Amino acid sequence: MRLARMGVSSYSRAPPLQDPLPPSLPPPPPPPHLSPVSSKRSILSIAFPLPSVAEEPEQELEEQKETKEKEEKLKQEDEDEDEEEERNRSHCFLCYGWMFFGLFFASFFILTIYLVFVFKLQPALPIVSISKLDFPWLHFPDRNFTLLDANVLTQIQVFNDNEETVLDYGRIKVQLFLDHIQLGETMVAGFSQKAKNLTFLNMRTQVRNSLVNADYAKKLQASAKNNQIVLDIVLSGNIGFEIGLLKMNGMPSLIACQDIKQFEVDFADKPKECKVEIFGFSCAVLFGTQEYLEGGSQFPDLLHMRKMATLDIAMTVN
């Protein structure tokens, strides 16, 4: 009993055990290097967490995607513009090509008709020759042989060698050239010529106080005494054709009689024929004649005048 009591009393007298959990401690003070504002931010960052690092790559990917889409859109627009320009350029080339071929074929068609027309009419042209050439008056009034007075009588025969075609001539302008000297001009009235008809045209021209070179004048005087004078005669006008019921009027024509020698005209059995041409060739010769009259140059040959082809027919007499 005593022991029991002692035991009880001893048990009751044992010191009480300490509390294993210490009392709660106050929060540690902020680090000395952080200000109150930064500590407040840290507290806010804990209360409101910032976006995580994983969200930043997603935003960058979205921005890159948008940028790529914009670049692709701009590239597509540029490609569309290039295609539009290419289509417009091809259309322009096509239009120019058709215009070129159209003009080419139109010119070819007109040229073909012209050549056929010329070849058809060329055989119907008359045969022209000089049958008489005389100088009843050839005088140098100046002692220095620098002035020339001359009268020239010329007879031209025109033969219509066609079987049925009738030729209608308008007024004809006749010009005479002695090397680089013009020996006057005259006009011949128009006339009509039936098939196989021979017509003679008598004309007289004169020149007064024409300036000449003294040496050339002396040679000319000697040539006149021996009937060795050489002339160029040009006739320009219009020729019409009546072939059955078909009638064509006003074809520009030119007759070029070159290197006509007085001696040959007087004593030759057959007169020297002149060259008769129409359309473009005649215009070229007319242009050459006009240049001769304006510049006083030597009468150019027919081949040279063809190279000077022009559509100017100002000297053509209607």
Automatic annotation (TrEMBL):
GO terms for cellular component: plasma membrane. Its main location: membrane. One of its GO terms (biological process) is defense response to other organism. InterPro entries: NDR1-like (IPR044839). Keywords: Membrane, Transmembrane, Transmembrane helix. Coiled coil: none annotated. The keyword Transmembrane applies. Residues 17-34 have a biased composition (Pro residues). It is found in: Membrane. Residues 1-86 are annotated as: Disordered. The chain crosses the membrane at residues 93-117. Residues 62-76 have a biased composition (Basic and acidic residues). This is Late embryogenesis abundant protein LEA-2 subgroup domain-containing protein. It comes from Jatropha curcas.
